[in-house]
Amino acid sequence: MSAIQILYAQFHASYLATKLNVRSLREALKDLPKSSGAIYQEAIGRLKSQNPEAVRLAEKTLLWIVNASRPLRVKELQHLLAVREGDVDIDDNALTAPMYILSICAG
Fold first, then answer.
1. Residues near 60 by Cβ (< 8 Å), separated by ≥ 6?
2. Fewer beta carbons within 10 angstroms: which end of the chain, N or C?
3. Rounded to whole angstroms, how far apart are CA atoms 46 and 49?
4. CB 47 within 8 Å of CB 55
5. Digit-coded pLDDT (tens) for 21-51
6. CB 91 within 8 A of CB 79
7. What angle do CA 33, 13, 41 make, to 5 degrees?
8. Superkingdom, according to UniProt (predicted)?
9. Quick count: other Cβ atoms within 10 Å of Cβ 106?
10. Calpha distance 42→49 (Å, rounded)
């Protein structure tokens, strides 16, 4: 299985996991996006449907991940997301829980 196929499978699994009953799950299975463009649009749509603070954090997260020169450790990403202009120290109270970061990125 290629890396792209794995990503598609992960996207589909996270999308299907949001369904609350069997009927919704069956309907979602019929309407799964087939192309990478459709999958991308679906993911961005889910991301943008969240509250404004979650959208900003998700966009910031994805920007750091996409532009990183190497894979980031979870703790590194937490610190990157916590920093604000003018900060001289890391405030541990500003660290976002890893599971929340994962959930707001909408798969």
1. 81
2. N
3. 5
4. yes
5. 999 999 988 888 777 787 778 778 888 889 9
6. no
7. 35
8. Eukaryota
9. 22
10. 11
